[in-house]
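To the team - iron/sulfur cluster complex, inputs and output below.
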Amino acid sequence: MFKYDAIMELVMAAEAAKENISTLVLRDHAESMGMTELEVYEKMELDYMVMRGSIEEGLKKNLKSMSGLTGGEGYLMNEYARTGKSLCGDFISKAMARSLAVAGCNAAMGRIVASPTAGSCGILPGCLISMQDEKGIPEKDIIMSMFTAGAFGIVIATRASIAGASGGCQAECGSAAAMAAAALVELMGGTPHQCADACAIAIANQLGLVCDPVAGLVEIPCIKRNAGGVVTAFSSADMALAGVAPKIPVDECLDAMSAVGDALPTALKETAGGGLAATPTGRKLQEFVFGKID
Ligand code: SF4
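Output:
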């Protein structure tokens, strides 16, 4: 049973114990599940391995979604990153490629880890695997940071939402970016409070993002929003580590996200009734997949 209703409760518990959020959460999970810490860690390790497999699959050149609407985004971005000419630089470009790969793998019905959802599944692995592969962070630290990301995700889910159908895309890609931002801060040696700051900044910067999947499929704009989420996560983590305060406390950001989600019209909550899904091209693409709907 997860016992934190607020991010700041989690932060204060970690600070009181003088340990990282991940260490605290791993111990809590082990106690509540009646398992050893090693057993719980090994479960997370399995998720980490799935994430790695999704990246490998999603970077393949000929990957196509079931609908035929998307495919190859991860491959293209990775090739571009390798030219060394990208505006975002090598590290961010490769992280974007990994996130596109995982989201593309999902659209092709491949195996992914919902983190927190399938639509936003590329953001956490895009950030974390890049920290390992490009910056040499040890695998054990990466896996531990997933406990921090997960803990933030649980609080977001209970206090606000992680479903596009109830909270818009801010709840999916926004939450994933916030979870990843917190994990990145911990990986960089930041404090639990800085993890919360990064989460707050990421949520604030994604507030109001609508859920408008073309043809109701988790492809357009979902796949590219994963790359956008990666950039949000890294920039939020960097701001928090630099001491740039979010000003609005993290749990108030989550409450605002919940209120904004409630205020969004149904057309912008995964119904394909508004936003990009309702554009002339969005409707044509829907016809391409499903035929004309009277
Ligand atoms: S647009 Fe909707 S379906 Fe797509 S990732 Fe965002 S919340 Fe999920």
